[in-house]
Amino acid sequence: MTTTITLVRGDITRQSADAIVNAANSSLLGGGGVDGAIHRRGGPAILAECRKLRAGHYGKGLPTGRAVATTAGDLDARWVIHTVGPVHSTTEDRSDLLASCYRESLRVADELGARTVAFPAISTGVYRWPLEDAARIAVKTVRAARTAVEEVRFVLFDDRAHEAFAAQVG
């Protein structure tokens, strides 16, 4: 089965999908950017489930490159899949960690039975990953993934991000 990749310029919290991916920080307790927006629009149910995760298996936080799901709260989705992207480094290649965010999110989506998944451009905000490289890694990883997800939607906040991903999708 082939996964369809679509690009949308807009606000990921306004998407209708089975799962919305959150570019979370390791605390799982909300933050800035996409993370803060998802927690604000999704409401307190997301934070409550994140706190339960922190009280249990993820007491030290979610490791970079891993993914875990919670309810989507008030979002137009069934689940939020939280993944922690790597901070970009000019001295260390962390590309595998960024690719792992997409692979692990799709693995979790498959476990949940999600067929549509909306992704942000992970690590391109405060984690400073260069947009063109992040787009290359994201699209390549999704195309190579063995997944039952039917549609991966990259929801890109601005024209520059949309153009970078469009160049990779072709």
Explain briefly what this protein structure is:
The protein has helices at residues 33-42, 44-55, 95-112, 131-144, 159-169, and strands spanning 4-9, 19-24, 67-71, 79-84, 116-119, 151-156. By secondary structure, the protein is an alpha/beta fold.
What this model shows, in words?
The chain is an alpha/beta fold and 170 residues long. It has 5 helices and 6 strands; from the N terminus they run ββααββαβαβα. It has a 6-stranded mixed sheet, sandwiched between helices. Helix 4 (131-144) crosses helix 5 (159-169). The protein starts with a strand and ends with a helix. Pfam families: Macro (PF01661). This is O-acetyl-ADP-ribose deacetylase.
What keywords describe this structure?
O-acetyl-ADP-ribose deacetylase, 6 strands, O-acetyl-ADP-ribose deacetylase activity, 19% strand, 170 residues, alpha/beta, Macro_dom-like, hydrolase, globular, 38% helix
Structural class: alpha/beta
Radius of gyration: 14 Å
Terminal CA distance: 20 Å
**How would you describe the oligomerization state of the chains in this entry?**
single chain
Query: Which strand order do you get reading across the main beta sheet?
Result: 1-6-5-2-4-3
Unreliable residue stretches? none
The rough form would be described as globular
The run of helices and strands is EEHHEEHEHEH
Helix content: 25-40%
Question: How many DSSP helices?
Answer: 5
Number of strands: 6
DSSP strand content: 15-25%
- Biggest sheet descriptor: 6 strands, mixed
Output mean pLDDT. 96
